Amino acid sequence: MANIVVLGSGMGGFGAAYRLHAEGILPVMYDKNAYYGGHTASFRYDSGFLFDMGPHISFTKDPRIQDLFADSVDQQYETVQISLNNYWRGYWPQHPVQLHLYGLPEDVLVKVITDFVAERHSPDRPVRNYADWLLSSFGRTFAELFPMQYTRKYHLTTADNMSTDWLGPRIYRPSLEEVLRGALSPSSPHLHYITHFRYPTEGGFVSYLKKLLPLGSLKLNHELVSLDPRARKLSFSNGLVAHYDSLVSSVPLPDLIRMIRGAPPDVLDASRRLACSTCVLVNVGVDREDLSSAHMTYFYDEDICFTRLSFPHMLSTRNVSPGTGSIQAEVYFCDKYKPL
Q1: Of 234, 230, 250, nearest to 242 (Cα)?
Q2: Is the pLDDT of residue 185 over 70?
Q3: How far is the C-alpha of 168 from the C-alpha of 67, rounded, in Å?
């Protein structure tokens, strides 16, 4: 049997193990952590609270992936209609804001709608980046007050430094009628690219990996320090040296490339210039459950350090102790890799 190694035991690593298992191959999987799951791990505390490593939900519409996840938890999952809202300068508009301007200050409404109409009657502008797309989609006032401001907090760069390749259905482009209805009435439709999501009934998001564990020979507490592609050799911080025939890696590129022996200087230099950010999650358990009616709240104000508050206790009623609530705050900052 081929000796195939998978680095990492998150969704990417186990996705590789699943595919290899279909070919009759049992890979060896290494993870630097004492737990599996990577960024999709879940942790339960003695107090009864359970937190995911991030506010993970499954909203895929791919039937194959839906079936795979459902089978992995023995069909024990909940389908939940998502509820989202926003916080901006003391106001709590529903999500997405462009469809729910009702209740915002009158001068803001007038400027947003005026700019929106003017943009619709302007000649088409070239869309070279995300900023151009936002301006042509919403007009300057809305673009600068909401998505551009959130971009600086969440992506840690400006919208003109981003492409539009990632957009897909993520940001809804409304018609003038939809903008006006949302400005005049509190009962506008909640249009979002995610309408429902699935979440395991027990054990948190990492439960989706439960039945994938036997698909690889999992070795935890193995931190990679060196990779020799010519000798096909891996060296770990605990002293272990392992060989492989083929390698699948889910290690972040800047970390992986600096460990590859003989990596060309220009590749090393390019890896150091990759832009990325680090997210710090702050989990709080609260002895009450009426914390929010939303699963997630987006915070636009730049004097508030976190970008989103998530409320994990709303995902599944069986995942935390009765009568308790929980909050997860996301704070993003630049790590050792410089942003562009």
Answers
A1: 234
A2: yes
A3: 24
Task: Count the helix, strand and coil residues of the chain and give each as a percent rounded to the nearest 5.
Answer: 30, 20, 45
* Threshold 0.85, pTM exceeds: yes
Check pLDDT > 90 for residue 293: no
Contact present, 157 and 340 (Cβ < 8 Å): yes
Three-point CA angle 304, 305, 310, nearest 5°: 90
- How many angstroms separate the Cα of 215 from the Cα of each of 19, 238, 247, 325, 338? 9, 24, 16, 35, 37
| Mean predicted confidence (pLDDT) in 215-242 | 98
298 C-beta neighbours (distance < 10 Å), count: 21
The sheet that has 4-7: what strands, in order across it?
A: 217-219, 28-30, 4-7, 246-249
Q: Mean pLDDT lowest for which of 46-50, 90-94, 297-301?
A: 46-50
Number of H helices, E strands in the chain: 9, 16
Amino acid residing at 331 = V
What's the CA gap between 179 and 21, in Å, rounded? 50
Interstrand relation of 217-219 and 28-30 (parallel, antiparallel or unpaired): parallel
Please enumerate in sequence order all residues whose Cβ is within 8 A of that of 214, keeping only pairs 6 or more positions apart, or say none.
Answer: none
Q: How far apart are CA 146 and CA 89, in angstroms?
A: 11
Contact 30, 244 (CB under 8 A): no
Helical H segments across the chain, by residue range: 11-22, 63-72, 106-120, 130-138, 140-145, 147-154, 176-184, 253-259, 265-272
- The strand pairing partners of 71, in sequence order, are none
pLDDT of residue 320: 52
Q: Are 48 and 324 in contact (CB under 8 A)?
A: yes
DSSP per residue over 144-168, as a string?
A: HHTHHHHHHHHTSS-GGGS-STT-T
Using CA atoms, how far apart are residues 260 and 191, in angstroms rounded to an integer?
Answer: 46
